[in-house]
Design brief:
Length: 173
């Protein structure tokens, strides 16, 4: 498997596969901001918006490929305020259900962390559903739990769940 940075054109070139990944992730119960069932057209539109964010320099996206097929992704969202240029938010770390268990989530996480450090960022933050498998990944990668907010976001079935906030200090450059 390979992990590659996607510019806006490449996001659009792979929008169908990225949409399939998002639909699979939501169908699998992951709380990534969408309710199930997620319409494929809505997933395509969401990724088209991500392409615009990448083109504007507001976000960076990486995709994991198994051959020619996109099986995972992770993104960074960059702040727009001068006082927060040292940090970014890690978002939408997704691995297709049939590609899990092979260390791909950790590889995507390491890729985003390395890219952020290379950009001079010294702090990353994220939120994830409390008690989710993602929490094990983040703790195992050295992320620090900052706290939990009850009833923060609905899971794909619409049930409000707590969300845990994490952060990680990076060595810049």
């Amino acid at each position: 498997m390979t992990v590659t940075a996607l510019d806006a054109t490449r996001v659009l070139d792979r929008v169908e596969q990225l949409a399939d990944l998002l639909v699979d992730t939501v169908a699998g119960g992951a709380s990534v901001g969408f309710l199930a069932p997620l319409a494929r057209a809505d997933a395509v539109a969401w990724w088209q918006g991500r392409a615009r964010a990448v083109a504007a320099g507001e976000s960076a996206v990486w995709a994991a490929y198994d051959g020619e097929r996109v099986v995972g992704t992770v993104s960074l969202v960059f702040p727009d305020k001068p006082n927060s240029r040292h940090r970014a938010e890690l978002v939408k770390l997704m691995v297709h259900r049939d590609a899990r268990g092979r260390g791909l989530g950790r590889r995507l996480l390491d890729t985003a962390e390395g890219a952020a450090a290379a950009l001079g960022m010294t702090l990353l933050h994220l939120d994830t559903e409390s008690g989710s498998p993602a929490e094990r990944l983040y703790r195992g990668a050295g992320w620090t739990r900052a706290g939990t907010i009850p009833d923060y976001a609905a899971d794909p079935s619409g049930v409000l769940r707590p969300t845990t906030l994490y952060y990680k200090h990076l060595s810049a450059g």
